[in-house]
Write a structure and sequence with these properties.
Blueprint: H1 3-22, H2 33-62, H3 67-74, H4 78-92
Helix pairs in contact: 2-4, 3-4
């Protein structure tokens, strides 16, 4: 497991533990396990997609694609694209 994934899991576990310490037992309801499994599966897929997208943006930048073009493809401004991916791209340069 890579370090980013381990950090993400550690953050989720810490958040869950905090919630468990603070939740009122009277507010608890049984969770449908099938639905929770689907949520977990999609969350896992989302992490993989986010990582692949970040690699694709980094590759595009190294090939000369502008932040404006990348932002257009992402449906955001060039500033938003640069803010989200710029640090990673700079680290790869």
């Amino acid at each position: 497991m890579d370090q980013d994934r381990e950090e993400w899991l550690a953050e989720k576990l810490a958040a869950f533990e905090k919630w468990a310490d603070e939740v009122d037992p009277a507010d608890l309801k049984p969770a449908p396990l099938e639905s929770m499994g689907v949520v977990a599966a999609w969350t896992n897929q989302q992490e993989g997609v986010n990582e692949a997208l970040a690699r694709a943006v980094t590759d595009a930048r190294t090939r000369g694609v502008t932040w404006s073009q990348i932002g257009e493809m992402l449906g955001v401004s060039k500033q938003a694209a640069r803010q989200k991916y710029g640090t990673r791209v700079a680290a790869q340069s």
